[in-house]
Amino acid sequence: MYGTLTLGVLSQSRQRLSRVPLSQSKPILRSFHLSTFRQTANSNGTQEAVHLLNWDEFFRLRKQRRLWERLASLPCAMLGLGAGAAVFATLPVNPQQTFMGLDPLLLFGGSSLFCGLLGFVIGPSVGRAWYRIASREMAKELDKKEVEFFKHVKANRSDPAFSSASNPLPDFYGEKINSLQAYRQWLRKQRNHERKGTFRLGSKK
Predict the structure, then answer these.
(1) DSSP three-state, residue 32
(2) pLDDT per residue over 9-24, tens digit each?
(3) Bridge partners of 102?
(4) How does the annotation summarize its subunit structure (predicted)?
(5) Is residue 194 within a helix (H) or strand (E), and if so which, with residue range?
């Protein structure tokens, strides 16, 4: 009788499971350390996907943004040079008069070159603005990850007090770090800088 009761309970449970549609079953989610999309609910109750950057993607996007900044420098320099030349070409020039002891043509030419140099300097800022417009969501996530990155740099860099002519501080702001491998090398350089600086201070005592 006990066996019959057990078989009856198993058959009823199988019938209940067979009546549950697949759409109502809860999927088993597996978390990864790679980048994923996390569902978050906003104030209106709708859900939106938030892209979570890992460090590999952060360095890749950082390189991409720097490429945009460098590519924007050349057209901005040409634009500044052309605008400066166009403005100074319209000014009246008297070859017999000098300005602060300089020939006017030489002065206008140097001023045009200065406008081109100014455009080259402003170019990276323009390129970064273009990058933000082209990919707004990724730019926001990149900024958040960059804040976290600089926190790591600030917490792990060596003390500048250990610096000397023979022991300069390597990459204080971590600008040369472009991958996880480069970050590990940067950490080793910071520790070597601390060790050499500590040994130098100890030898003076």
Answers:
(1) coil
(2) 445 544 444 444 434 4
(3) 99
(4) Component of the PAM complex.
(5) helix 180-204
